[in-house]
Amino acid sequence: MLSFLPAPLLFIINSLLIAINVILIATPILILGIVKIILPFDFILRLVDNCNYYLYKVWVINNRMLMALTNDIKWHITGDDIPSTRKTCIVMSNHISWLDILFICSVYGGRIPITKFFMKQNLIYIPFVGLACYTLGMPFLRRYPKEKLLKNPALRTKDVETTKKVCKDLIKYPSSLINFCEGTRFTPEKAKKAKSTYRHLMPPKAASLGVALTEIYDEVEYIFNNTFYYPENSKGAFMDMMFGKIKDVYVNIEIIEKNDRLRGNYLEDKTFKHDFTMYLRELWEKKDQLLDEMEADYRSQKENK
Fold first, then answer.
1. Are the beta carbons of 93 and 179 closer than 8 angstroms?
2. Where are the domains of the chain?
């Protein structure tokens, strides 16, 4: 709608609207967080959880409107239809940009419970956003340098303990756990350094997803597998959105049927751990092929214009 405006002006508009949206949604979430601390009764906690769910839906709607207002986005959505549910879900996805988070929320459109992401510990210090995410129960992971891990090997289990705690909360207060299995955003440089065997992806890390499924497999209603592709915005996609430059967004949604290869004890059963890791790699091979198809489709459409 406003994508015809100069990029610097769109950046200002987006900055203002994003800030207003964050403040409007984060403020009541923070207030509800204080209520949880003062009145930690079960019925109060459930009431706060319901309020947060609707605040989350408003945040999703506002973000979709904001992106549609300042970016001329052409969506290419394929795969399975997204069912509506209030039960616990797991969403795995490749990771291109911070924008993935907004796009996941936009694509699912509030049809699944409030999304929770594994976040780096230092993000908690972002004004409003960090505290709001903490109040919502987002899991924060702390990355330790190798030197510190060598001095204190016990730190290696910290992320596992965090994942277990989050899973217990997911059982009590159903949410959608988002897992970027690659552990970091994809870049050709990172992929080369990691000796990735994929063209478009980093090697998947099975630990956090494996632990989560070990803890809550029976409570999970849907397991979604997302594949995102931004042909013109693979680098700096978030800033491109701020400047109104997002064009084509490809996303495939696959509902993974619950099966024996997903059910087991990742930490204690070595056979299951190996089988699950191989299963995840197989999914990533298919995802890489799908990204090849998306790339070919985009090039074909561009040539036919």
1. yes
2. 74-303
- Which conformational region is residue 89 in: left (phi greater than 0), alpha (psi within -120 to 50 degrees), or beta? beta
| Residues 35-45: tens digit of each pLDDT | 888 988 888 88
Altogether, the residues listed in the chain come to a count of 305
Residue listed under structure tokens 């003062």? 38
Region for residue 280 given its phi and psi (left: phi exceeds 0; alpha: psi -120 to 50; beta: otherwise)? alpha
What is the architecture of the domain spanning 74-303? Answer: 3-Layer(aba) Sandwich (3.40)
Strand, helix or coil for residue 178: strand
Give Cα 16 distance to the centre of its chain: 24
Label residue 114 by pLDDT band (50, 70, 90).
confident
Q: What pLDDT, in 10s, does the model give residues 52-68?
A: 888 888 988 998 999 99
Report the distance separating Cα 161 and Cα 164, nearest Å. Answer: 5
Strand partners, 93: 180, 226
pTM over 0.90: no
Which positions ≥6 away from 269 have C-beta within 8 Å?
none
Residues 53, 25: contact at Cβ < 8 Å? no
Measured distance CA(112)–CA(87) in Å, rounded: 8
Long-range contacts for 263-272 (Cβ within 8 Å, ≥24 apart)? 263/213, 263/217, 264/214, 265/214, 266/206, 266/207, 266/210, 266/211, 266/213, 266/214, 267/160, 267/211, 267/214
Q: Diameter of the chain by CA atoms?
A: 62
Nearest to 228 by CA among 90, 123, 78, 71: 78
